[in-house]
Design goal:
The complex is a heterodimer of chains A (150) and B (242). With 150 residues, chain A is mainly beta. Chain A contains 1 helix and 12 strands. In chain A, the strands form 3 sheets. Chain A has a 4-stranded antiparallel sheet with strand order 4-5-6-7, with no helix packed on it. A 4-stranded antiparallel sheet of chain A has the order 8-9-10-11, with no helix packed on it. In chain B, a hairpin with a 5-residue loop joins strand 1 and strand 2. Chain B is α+β, with helices and mostly antiparallel strands. In chain B, the strands form 3 sheets. In chain B, strands 8-9-10-11 form a 4-stranded antiparallel sheet, with no helix packed on it. Chain B has a 3-stranded antiparallel sheet with strand order 1-2-4, with no helix packed on it. Chain B has a 3-stranded antiparallel sheet with strand order 5-6-7, sandwiched between helices. The longest helix of chain B has 17 residues. The two termini of chain B are 30 Å apart. The relative contact order of chain B is 0.10. At the A-B interface, strand 1, strand 2, strand 4, strand 8 and strand 9 of A face strand 1, strand 3, strand 5, strand 8 and strand 11 of B. Strand 11 of chain A pairs parallel with strand 3 of chain B.
């Protein structure tokens, strides 16, 4: 029986909640407006820091320890487009249903698909017609990989 | 990329024509700048679109095997945009459908949407969720939930005054959380959580995937659509789905 969930807040905390109690069961202080996502197995969760373009992978069992993997997302195309590069604000993170990929959504024109094991950027997702007036706003992302179901 | 291989054969020709006509209308309404258009009607997307209009489980034994394989191989990131549209990319198409000019995976490999749904006319699409078991797409915007099954519509009426739709955990028993001024409150009664303070301006919630739930199942059952919806709300749901 496990009904916990995580919340990430702009007060730079990630909190772990249990549905059976009204107060947070765990508190993680991270600097830079976190977004959180569990992987499908529930053993690992990812924290994306808005302001630092960083993805951190945590072990659920070692909630209060250091992340076991940290990746900095680097986008050379944005660097080429303008200087200094317009770093997008990360607004969502999500694992694919098979756990292989990590999707990082931003409030800018681009989203990223990362390999969830080594953190390498696999693809940039852009809209077909980049528009100055209507940036993408991806607040909650979903990977719709249909894995084998019982 | 051709749509012939991915078109499910169980679709009635009429339904397929209707979908194609809708797709062509949709494409014609958009401005063109000479970019190559990909067909909108493909296996997973078609099913997703159908699931928006008619709630139907697609992974039933009566479905053809190739359709399921198309679905099992699909990896379709979804994103809600600020103009209310829902964009769908195809991140990992099967090798037969991969474009020859697609760059190898790297941080310079830029992909464009294979389809864009109209989504919400009244504002940004704030949240998008996909239920892989039923191939059902749910999105939430200013009016919270639209183009989804009646269950969400019936919930959305009670949530209409709330600010954000935060987490939608589509596991065996799902939980729906709502974020309003930093307070996370379960909308399914019987969980015994009450309310929890989650810090100022919480931005994201992740529900841990689990097969079992501490939530009282009887409370969940009482909110299921067949029992919860009155006849008037069913009628309204039908009208909104048109």
């Amino acid at each position: 029986m496990d009904d916990t969930f995580l919340s990430g807040a702009t007060d730079d905390t990630v909190r772990m909640w249990d549905l059976r109690t009204a107060s947070a069961q765990g508190l993680l202080n991270v600097a830079g407006h976190p977004c959180v996502a569990y992987d499908p197995s529930g053993a690992v969760f990812a924290v994306v820091l808005n302001l630092r373009s960083t993805v951190m992978l945590y072990d659920v069992k070692n909630f209060d320890k250091q992340p076991f993997h940290t990746v900095h997302i680097d986008d050379p195309i944005l660097r080429d487009r303008s200087f200094p590069a317009r770093t997008p604000i990360y607004t969502s993170v999500s694992f694919s249903n098979d756990g292989k990929w990590l999707l990082v959504g931003t409030s800018g024109d681009v989203h990223y698909v990362l390999d969830s094991f080594d953190g390498a950027v696999m693809a940039r997702l852009e809209r077909a017609f980049p528009s100055r007036s209507l940036p993408l706003l991806a607040l909650l992302f979903s990977f719709s990989t249909l894995a084998e179901h019982d | 990329m051709t749509d012939s291989g991915a078109t499910p054969s169980t679709c009635s020709p009429r339904a397929l024509d209707r979908n194609r006509a809708r797709a062509s209308r949709h494409q014609a309404a958009r401005p063109t700048n000479g970019a190559r258009r990909r067909p909108l009607v493909r296996g997973g997307l078609l099913v997703a679109r159908r699931a928006l209009h008619r709630r139907r489980c697609v992974l039933s034994p009566s479905q053809p095997a190739h359709l399921v394989s198309v679905l099992t191989r699909a990896a379709l990131p979804l994103a809600g945009a600020i103009d209310g549209r829902i964009h769908i990319w195809d991140f990992a198409p099967p090798p037969a459908e991969t474009a020859a000019d697609r760059p190898p995976p790297s941080n310079t490999c830029t992909l464009h949407p294979v389809a864009s749904l109209d989504g919400h006319a009244t504002g940004p699409a704030r949240a998008v969720a996909f239920n892989p078991k039923a191939a059902m797409l749910a999105s939430a915007g200013r009016e919270l939930v639209r183009r989804s099954d009646p269950f969400f519509l019936s919930l959305s009426r009670s949530l209409a005054r709330s600010a954000y739709f935060v987490g939608l955990s589509l596991t065996v028993s799902f939980s729906l959380y709502l974020l309003d001024a930093g307070v996370v409150a379960p909308r399914l009664q019987g969980g015994g959580l009450g309310q929890g303070r989650c810090g100022r301006g919480a931005g994201a919630v992740a529900c841990r995937p689990s097969r079992t739930s501490a939530i009282d199942r009887s409370a969940l059952d009482s909110t299921r659509p067949a029992r919860a919806l009155s006849s008037s709300s069913k009628r309204e749901a039908r009208m909104r789905r048109v």
